[in-house]
Amino acid sequence: MKPYSYRRSTTSCRLRAALNFKELPYETVPVDLIAGAQCSPKSTALNHGCGVPVLMLEDGTVLTQSLAILDYLQVVATPRLLPEGPVQRARVMACAHGVSLDIHPVNNFRVTQHLRNTHGVTPGETKVWMQHWMTDGFTALEAMVSQNTSFAFGETPDLADLCIVAQIYNAHRLDLDMKPYPHLSWIEAACLTDPAINAARPENQSDAPHSTKAPA
Ligand SMILES: N[C@@H](CCC(=O)N[C@@H](CS)C(=O)NCC(=O)O)C(=O)O
C-alpha cells in the first residue's frame, strides 16, 4: 500500500497510526503541503480534493478522505479500531468526528492560507484563530472521553485516540495550554507509549527535517 502523506498533517498521522496498528506493510509517498504539492496535477489526479492522505492499494485503487480510509481498514484488517457495540461505537465515532469535522476543517492549511492571503490576517492572528477552534473542540472532547481509562475508551487505542493524539501534536505546535484538558493529556501520554502511534509521529517520518529515513 502507498499512503500519500505529509509528516505534520493530522489526517495523515491518523492513517499512519492505523496502518502501523494493523501491521499492514506500506511505503509512504511524502507530499509537501507547504510547497503546494497537494495541488499538483499528479496529486489532483489522485485526489480532486487537493489534500492528504490518499491511500493507493496494491491493485492501484485510490482511496481518499481519512475517515473513509480508516473505515475501509476497519473492514479489511484487524485489530479493529472501533468497538462492536453500537452505542460504544457511536461514542468513539463522535470523538473522531469532534476532531475531524469540528476542529480540523476550520484549521486546515487552505483555510489559514485564505485568511492570510485574502483577508490580511497576520500569522499571530491565525495562531489565535487556530487556538480558538482547538479550545472549543478540546473542551467538548475532554467531557466526552471516558474519565477512568488510559486511552479514550479503554485500555487499548481506538479511532478516537488516533484522532485526538494527532490533533494534540498540532496543539503543542501552536502553544495551546493543555492544562484544562487533563484527560486528553493522559490519553496523549498513553498513546505515545504505543509503538504503532509513536512510529506515526511527524518527527519519525522520512520527510521530517534531519530524518535518517530515506523517502519512499
Ligand atoms: N477531510 C479530509 C481532509 C484532508 C485534508 O485537507 N488534509 C490536509 C492535511 S491535514 C491537507 O491536505 N491540506 C492541504 C491544504 O489545505 O491545502 C480528510 O480527512 O482526509
Indicate the topology:
Blueprint: E1 2-5, H1 10-21, E2 29-30, H2 41-46, E3 54-56, E4 62-64, H3 66-76, H4 86-107, H5 109-119, H6 123-144, H7 159-173, H8 182-192, H9 195-199
**Helical content (DSSP H or I, runs of 4+):** 40-55%
Distinct helical segment count: 9
User: What top-tier CATH class of the largest domain fits best?
Assistant: Mainly Alpha
Number of separate domains? 2
CATH architecture of the largest domain: Up-down Bundle
The succession of helices and strands, N to C, reads EHEHEEHHHHHHH
The largest sheet has its strands arranged as 2-1-3-4
CATH fold description of the largest domain: Glutathione S-transferase Yfyf (Class Pi), Chain A, domain 2
Biggest sheet features: 4 strands, mixed
Low-confidence stretches: none
* Anisotropy-based shape: globular
Bound molecules: glutathione
Instruction: Please tally the β strands and state the result.
Output: 4
Name the structural class. Answer: mainly alpha
What report would you give on this structure?
The protein has 216 residues and is mainly alpha-helical. It folds into two domains: 2-79 and 199-204, Glutaredoxin (3-Layer(aba) Sandwich); 86-194, Glutathione S-transferase Yfyf (Class Pi), Chain A, domain 2 (Up-down Bundle), CATH 1.20.1050.10. Helices cover 53% and strands 6% of the residues. The protein is built from nine helices and four strands; from the N terminus they run βαβαββααααααα. Strands 2-1-3-4 form a four-stranded mixed beta sheet, with helices on one face. α1 (10-21) packs parallel to α3 and α7 (159-173) packs across α8. The mean pLDDT is 95. Residues 9-11, 33, 38, 50-53, 65-67, 100, 108-110 line the site of glutathione.
